[in-house]
Amino acid sequence: MLHESMDAGLQKLIDGNRRFVSGHLTSPHQSIERRQDIITRQEPFAIILGCSDSRVPPELIFDQGLGDLFVIRVAGNILDEAVLGSLEYAVTHLRVPLLVVLGHCECGAVKATIEALELHEHAEGHLGYIVDTIQPHHPTSSG
Ligand SMILES: [Zn+2]
Questions:
Q1: CA of 130 to the centre of ligand 1 (A)
Q2: Same domain, 114 and 92
Q3: Ligand 1 center to residue 127 CA distance, Å?
Q4: Residue 90 CB: number of other CB atoms within 10 A?
Q5: What is the pLDDT of residue 3?
Q6: What CATH number corresponds to the domain at position 101?
Q7: Residues with CB under 5 A from ligand 1 (ion)
Q8: Surface-to-core class of residue 38, CB atoms within 10 Å of its CB (0-12 exposed, 13-18 middle, 19+ buried)
Q9: Do 130 and 98 reside in the same domain of the chain?
């Protein structure tokens, strides 16, 4: 049953992305009736862990609507305690069967990380946390 709903959810995302790519959006689940339907409950069919980049909003690129996706967006798709807590909530409380980690081209957070590594510099401010989290981590030889 879970596997079926996972496959069906993935197919919805694939179909929605095809509509987005072709420019034939249906913009589902955005009516006043839909808003009324989800006031007291939500049953998203997929969790999307994506980047904050303004060019990749999951509801738009997968042509989905209100209540369809449980979206977690953070620059560079990094995992921290808040993101993990959000994922855990979606899985354990909402029983969302499908998790998609959505990468994208020309990611500013990844570029900032590469730049910091090449220049041997530490990114300023809170961006430093994101860069530190994205950069490759190598196990120490001492174990
Ligand atoms: Zn990005």
A1: 11
A2: no
A3: 13
A4: 22
A5: 75
A6: 3.40.1050.10
A7: 51, 53, 107
A8: middle
A9: no
